[in-house]
């Protein structure tokens, strides 16, 4: 399966920028080729589904339609992510990728629910299905999806956007396998209810992958702490290892796009500590030990500037 763990191959912050741009360019090309493949075949499969009367083919074509749209959006998201930050978008447009990943998840979810509904209707009122032509179309679909999967699998699987694209193609691949199985059963036995039954199986598989993608993308969009990091643990580590730091509070850790991690914090310093040296040491430790390459640190002596002054003081 294509589920790469989000944080295998954990590099230090310095090595990350050198080749991430080149990787993104390659990923962009991979997604474009997959979008063209999927979009082209989706039309053929939809026609095949209508001609043969197969829901399994129509379900796969419907999924390929969202796939094709999703892959085009993923390509556009890579395109936007390369643009520099502006006065209006001060973090750049990298998060568009996460937004697209979330939208992809929602679309697949809706399509899968439609397949389940249509399958229930067809199960109780099965229509004729042409097994031979259905098998031919499903085999061609499998070949196209395997090609798309192999092209995307070579890309950066730490990227939520790339993983979203892979999930779409993987769902299609399963859809084609189910359509092939249904066609073989229909050819061998003439039992057409196998067609809606297998389309429901595909829908259930699609639903579970879409849910996990939506959950991860939503976590990033809600500024959640990345799953491999412990906010309180990092604050404690800074207090323990950076000289002159008494305590760290008001700490926020979040990910911009599922890959780049940011932090803001207040550092309470002991009297006599050089604030510049302490801030530099904190930033250095965050980058090298915790992989947080963009941090804003507010040094403090005595009372915290964000706490309201007590009456009488």
From TrEMBL:
Belongs to the cation diffusion facilitator (CDF) transporter (TC 2.A.4) family. SLC30A subfamily. Keywords: Ion transport, Membrane, Transmembrane, Transmembrane helix, Transport, Zinc, Zinc transport. The keyword Repressor does not apply. One of its GO terms (cellular component) is plasma membrane. This is Cation transporter. The lineage of its organism: Bacteria, Pseudomonadati, Pseudomonadota, Alphaproteobacteria, Hyphomicrobiales. Residues 1-22 are annotated as: Disordered. Residues 31-222 form the Cation efflux protein transmembrane domain. One of its GO terms (molecular function) is zinc ion transmembrane transporter activity. Residues 228-299 form the Cation efflux protein cytoplasmic domain. The keyword Zinc applies. It comes from the Bacteria. It is a multi-pass membrane protein. It is found in: Membrane. The chain crosses the membrane at residues 31-51, 57-78, 99-117, 129-152, 164-191, 197-214.
């Amino acid at each position: 399966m294509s589920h790469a763990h989000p944080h295998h191959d954990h590099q230090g912050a310095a090595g990350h920028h050198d080749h991430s741009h080149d990787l993104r360019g390659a990923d962009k090309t991979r997604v474009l080729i997959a979008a063209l493949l999927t979009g082209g075949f989706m039309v053929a499969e939809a026609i095949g589904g209508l001609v043969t009367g197969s829901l399994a083919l129509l379900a796969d074509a419907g999924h390929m339609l969202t796939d094709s749209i999703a892959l085009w959006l993923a390509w556009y998201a890579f395109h936007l992510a390369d643009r520099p930050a502006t006065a209006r978008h001060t973090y750049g447009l990298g998060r568009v990728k996460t937004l697209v990943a979330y939208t992809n998840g929602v679309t697949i979810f809706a399509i899968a629910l439609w397949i389940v509904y249509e399958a229930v209707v067809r199960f109780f009122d099965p229509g004729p299905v042409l097994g031979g032509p259905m098998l031919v179309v499903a085999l061609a679909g499998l070949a196209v999806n395997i090609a798309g999967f192999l092209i995307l699998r070579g890309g950066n699987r730490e990227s939520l956007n790339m993983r979203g694209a892979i999930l779409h193609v993987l769902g299609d691949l399963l859809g084609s396998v189910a359509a092939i199985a249904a066609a073989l059963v229909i050819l061998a036995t003439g039992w057409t209810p196998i067609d809606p039954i297998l389309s429901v199986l595909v829908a259930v598989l699609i639903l579970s992958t879409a849910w996990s993608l939506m959950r991860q993308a939503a976590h990033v969009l809600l500024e959640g702490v990345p799953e491999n990091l412990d906010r309180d643990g990092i604050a404690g580590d800074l207090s323990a290892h950076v000289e002159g730091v008494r305590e760290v509070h008001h700490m926020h850790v979040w990910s911009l796009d599922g890959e780049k991690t940011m932090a803001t914090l207040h550092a309470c310093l002991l009297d006599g500590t050089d604030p510049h040296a302490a801030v530099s040491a904190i930033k250095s430790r965050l980058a090298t030990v915790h992989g947080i390459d963009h941090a804003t640190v507010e040094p403090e002596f005595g009372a915290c500037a964000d706490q309201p002054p007590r009456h009488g003081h």
